[in-house]
Design a protein that fits this description.
Structural class: alpha+beta
Radius of gyration: 15 Å
Strand content: 5-15%
Shape: globular
Distance between the termini: 40 Å
Number of helices: 7
Strand order of the largest sheet: 1-2-4-3
Number of strands: 6
Order of helices and strands: HEHEHHEEHEEHH
CATH topology: Beta Polymerase, domain 2
Helix content: 40-55%
């Protein structure tokens, strides 16, 4: 499987903007948009959980070329904690309740805009990775923390 590409992130950003989806890039895809030097196979997107936002998310995903079953569309509209999509032009993980982050509004208050991309703050990306406690996430945490410190140094006023 090919790595998730910047061009695909742009497609998500643009389609989600056209449909007024409230979301944040999270996980390694979010870190990549902040400049983290790595790759990922899919994009992790934190979606604000509401029926209205789920409905516009389904419309945006269909515009992007995702073939959603009725069950998948229902899961997105009702905000199931995690919906993995592999039936489109690239792989997407939709996360409505990421580990380590209390609420979407909390993450939104801390988020960073990068070239029009709404991205979780590096501290939230790290908190989420740490809370999942998966082996691959534990292995990436030292590098993510070092990147966060570097990134904060670049972005301090």
């Amino acid at each position: 499987m090919a790595a998730f590409e910047y061009r695909q992130a742009e497609e998500v950003r643009d389609a989600f903007a056209r449909h007024s989806v409230r979301y944040l890039f999270i996980g390694k895809s979010g870190a990549l948009l902040l400049g983290f030097p790595d790759t990922t196979q899919d994009a992790d997107i934190f979606i604000e959980q509401s029926t209205e936002n789920g409905t516009v998310t389904v419309a945006a995903l269909r515009e992007l070329g995702f073939t959603l079953t009725a069950a998948q569309a229902d899961e997105i509209i009702r905000g199931k904690d995690f919906v993995q999509l592999k039936n489109g032009p690239f792989d997407l993980d939709l996360i409505f309740a990421p580990d380590g982050i209390e609420t979407f509004s909390d993450a939104w208050r801390r988020h960073v805009e990068v070239e029009g991309f709404p991205v979780c703050h590096p501290d939230d990306i790290i908190a989420s990775k740490a809370a999942t406690n998966r082996q691959k996430d534990r292995e990436s945490l030292p590098r993510l923390r070092a990147f966060r410190d570097y990134w904060l140094g670049l972005n301090s006023d």
